[in-house]
Amino acid sequence: MPDGLAQRSKTFDRKVDAERFAAHVEHEKTRGEWIDPQRGQVTLAEWTGEWWPTVVSLSPSPSTRLRGIIDNHVLPRFGPVQLAEITQPSVAVWVVHLTELGLSPASVQKCIRRSGGS
């Protein structure tokens, strides 16, 4: 299994329930909405710690700006939050907060794009 995760299984009393569940998971995957239940328990700060060392294509200036956005805006709000708990409404509230802090619309957009938002 990737990332050292153990294979998990789910049992059903009826075949139709198993097929319905499998179809639901495939639909979520197709829409990009499926979250591995185990990976969803990782906090954004933990995930960022794994992801940041892989950011190698940025020149120093964009890399410094990105790290600043992450450290100053993304992690203070979402760092301790489990990935599965970060929702579109919570991001929308965060955007309002960034605006209330006085960030320009362009800066808010950079925060959203850099944090993996819409």
Offer a quick outline of the entry.
By secondary structure, the protein is mostly helical.
Structural Rg: 18 Å
What is the averaged pLDDT score?
81
Structural class: mainly alpha
Q: Using DSSP, what is the number of strands?
A: 0
Report the total helices. Answer: 5
What top-tier CATH class of the largest domain fits best?
A: Mainly Alpha
Q: Helicity level, as a percent range?
A: 55-70%
CATH homologous superfamily of the largest domain? Tyrosine recombinase, N-terminal domain
Outline the structure in words.
- There is one protein chain.
- The chain is mainly alpha-helical.
- It has 2 domains: 11-38; 42-114, DNA polymerase, domain 1.
- The chain contains 5 helices and no strands.
- The chain has helices at residues 15-31, 44-51, 60-78, 88-100, 105-114.
- The longest helix has 19 residues, at 60-78.
- The protein is elongated and about 55 Å long.
- Mean pLDDT is 81; it is low at 1-7.
Q: What is the strand and helix layout of this fold?
A:
Elements: H1 15-31, H2 44-51, H3 60-78, H4 88-100, H5 105-114
What attributes does this structure have?
118 residues; DNA polymerase, domain 1; mainly alpha; 2 domains
